[in-house]
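Pair request: fold both.
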Amino acid sequence: MRSTSLGISLGLLLTLTSAGAWAGFDEAAAAFAAGNYAQAQEQLQPLLANHDPRAQYSMGVLYENGFGVSKNPKEAAAWYLKSAEQGNSDAQFNLGAMHEHGVGIPVNFTEAARWYRPAAEVGDIDALSNLGVLYQNGQGVKPDKVLAMALYNVSVAYAGNAQTQAKQNRQALANQIPMAELQQSMALTEELLKPGNLKAGLRAYLQQGHSAGK
């Protein structure tokens, strides 16, 4: 599971959104950065009362890491679920990872794939990589090494020059599958990397019956 940090996560989000839309949330980020977790939680309360998915995700981060609260992976998973159900891709990834590795909740590969997928569809490089692992191993989904390779390729492409787990996964898988499947994965990769086509391309591939989830 990737390391989560409320300060980093909130900081990244704040650069993408106007200040007015984050009333109360920027204060929570500032309090977190100062190590004042109690104040951060206080600032999140009005947002939580309005079922704000950002605040719900933030509470998950606090409980997962034990920042200002007793470390409680089960509670973290509950907050991530609330946020993930509202479309927060960070929460979707973290929830998928918890299901995959049995952190705070029982191992459930089907649920892991379920939550990795929407995060992958919006380009989360870690979700793309981890979903690829599930398809490579046939965990919670029908095994499909062509799709696994394509997901690794897309993750690597989105990551740019960064050294990622997807790069290692891709190299290992490339040594295991026939050339014909490598060529198929390249064709699928090109389709998924077309501008704005990741979600639609992935869904189209799955709907064609190549690799339907269980």
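--- second member of the pair ---
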Amino acid sequence: MIETELLNGLRDWQANPNTELDSGRTLDQKIRNLLEFYICECIRFGPKELCGWWSDGVMHLEITEPLPNHFKLIGVTWIDSKGLAPFEFDITIDPDDGNHFSRTIFRIGKRDSQGRPSLCSRDLATSRILDERPKQARGWVMAVELEKPTKAEFQQG
């Protein structure tokens, strides 16, 4: 499961962000690869205007841990090799079950002046794309919050 692998990668990042893996890859590369697929899974649940979008690799990634068991991931991903899009994840790890996320807020893409999804040029510096990313939920093409169901909700089916 991508979520579990991503969670393990974030835990490893907590311990040492500069970890080199046995395969010769860095931990950062592993997390970027997992995010590529995680972003694709999230986009599937997005609005129709994202139909056909998929992450084709994470170009830039910044990870912070503003609070215990809470991670902020911001970055830039390729979209269909057509252009670049900013993204953000706010991830909270379930304190009662450290193997799952209890809450994830995912945001991706920005809108043009007419409100349509807009990709950034691949020639634009990733730092500029991040600086110009939306600051409010309505500015993102997709902003969704996912929460782990409570035991009662899960049992109700």
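Observation on the second member. The mean pLDDT is 88.
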